[in-house]
Fold:
Amino acid sequence: MTDDETRIAAIVSRITHIPAAQLSPVADLRVDFNIDSLAGLQIIAAVEASYAIEVPEYHLADYTTIRDIAELAVTLSKEQAATDDA
Amino acid sequence: MRVGLIAMSGVRVINPRLQAAGVTLPGFVRRGEVIAQLPSLALITLAALTPDDVDIEYLEIEDFPSEEIRPTHFDLVGISSYTARAYDMYVLADWYREKGVAVVLGGLHVSQVPEEAQAHADAVCIGEAETLWPRIIADFRAGGRAGLQTAYREERPGHYDLADSPMPRYELLLGRRHNRITVQTVRGCPLDCEFCGASKLYGPKFRRKPVAKVMQELDRIEQLWGANAFVEFADDNSFGNPHWARELLYAMRGVKLRWFTETDISIADDDELLKLLFETGCRQLLIGFESIAPATLSGIDRAGWKRRHLERYQDAIRRIQNAGISVNGCFIVGNDGDTPAVFEELRDFIERSELLDAQITILTPFPGTRLLQRLQHEGRLLYEHFWDRCTLFDVVFEPKNMTVAQLEEGHMWLMQEVYGEERLSRSRRRYVDIMKRLRENATEDPASDGR
Structure:
C-alpha cells in the first residue's frame, strides 16, 4: 500500500472496526466488506477532514476501493490547494 | 426426518410504469434490494425450536427459480410469506403436497386469513409460532400428515414471553447473500394504526426481549460475520419504552456492529439516547410519520398520538440527524384526506426538513386490518383478489379525493423527486457535513473515539 492508501485504510478501519490488516487497497468496500452507503459517506467525511478537501456532491458515492479514495484525496488535495493559492 | 423451512423472499411491484422507472431511480432500487436481502428471522427461530435429530434446511424461493431444481427430499416443509407473495406461496404449497410432502403454512399473512391458507396446507399456524411449532413437529412425528391438526392456534395471542425465545439459528444464513441480519428486540405496539397488520398479530402490549438475550444474539452475529455485519432490528418500535432503550443501548456500548431500526419521534427528546445510538453504531432510524395532514393523522391511530406530534416533526428530524443518525421518514399517500396537492406538499416537507432518506408508499389494506374492513364496507376495493398487489406501491382501492390515475401518477412523480440522483446527491452532502461536524466535536472531547 502507498502511504495514502495506508492512511485511508486506517480511517476505514476506525469507522468500520474491520482490522486494517484485512483491508486490501483494491477490494470493493461494499461487496467484499459489506460497508453500507452511510458508512461509506462517513469514511468520505473523515477523508475530507483528514486531507482538508471537499468531494464534489455528485461524486460522493462513486468510490468503492481504498485505492480509489486515496487517488481522489490526493488529486483533490492538489487541485483545491492550487485553487486556494490562486 | 427432514424439514425444509422456505421463505417467500422479495416483493415485485405490479405497476409496469413503476417497474420501468425503478431502473432509473437509484434510491428505489436500493430499497428494493434491501427488502429482498432480508432473511426470514421467523424461520431461523423455528429452526432453533426443532429437535436436534431433525435435519433442517433454510431456503429462500430465489434458491430454486424453476420447478426442476426444487428440492423434494423433505418430509415436511414450513413456508412463510409476505402478503404480496401469498399466491406464489399457495402454488408452492400445492406443488409440495402433490409430491407427498406435508405442508405447514404460517406467518403474519396466514394468521390473518387462516381459512384461505388452509386450502393449500396440511396445517396452518395461527399466531406467534414459538409455542406451536414444537407441537406441530411432535404431531407429525407421531402420525405423519394424518397426525397433523388442520390448524394450530396460539392460546393467548400477544402474550408470548420473549424471555423464552430461543437463539435463532443464524449460522443457517452463512454463505447466503444477505447483507443485513435481523434481530428482534420487542413485539407489540399500543398505537393500533388503521393500516397496521403487525399489531393485530402481536397485540397492543410492548413485550421486550431481555437485554441479556439481545446481547447474546448480537454477540453471535459478531462471532459469525465479524465487523462486516449490518444488523436490522426487526421491530415495529424498538424504543417505545425509554428505560428499556437506555438499558439496551448501555449494554450495546462496545459492540462493533452497525445497525438500523424503527422507532417513533419521541427518541428526539432524549439527548442521552441519541448519543448512545450513535456511539453503539446506529446509522439510521426509520420513523413512520405517515402524513403531514392533521386530519389524516387524527384518523390513523385511535389515541391520536401521531396527530399530537405533528408540529414537532421537523424539529425532531433535525435533532436526530444532527446526532449523526440518518432519518428514513415513511409517508403514506392515498389517505382519505389526501387530494392531488398532497404530493407537492410532501415533496416540500421532505426538502424543508432536510430528511436524509424517505419512503413513500401507497396506502395498502393488508389482511386483518381495520383499513381493509372499512374499504370493504365502503365498496372501494378495486379487485376481489389482490394480495399480489399488496406491495405498498400498487393501488388496490378507490381513493376518496382523487382518482386512481391521479394517485398512481402523483406517487410516481413524488418517487422521481425523492429518489432522483439530484436529491440523493444533496442528501449525501448533508450527511457528510453532519459527520464532519460530529468529528470536530469528538476531537474536542478526548473521551470519544469519533465514531
Summary: Chain A is about 65% helix and 0% strand. Chain A touches chain B through 23 residues (CB under 8 Å). Chain A has one domain: 3-85.
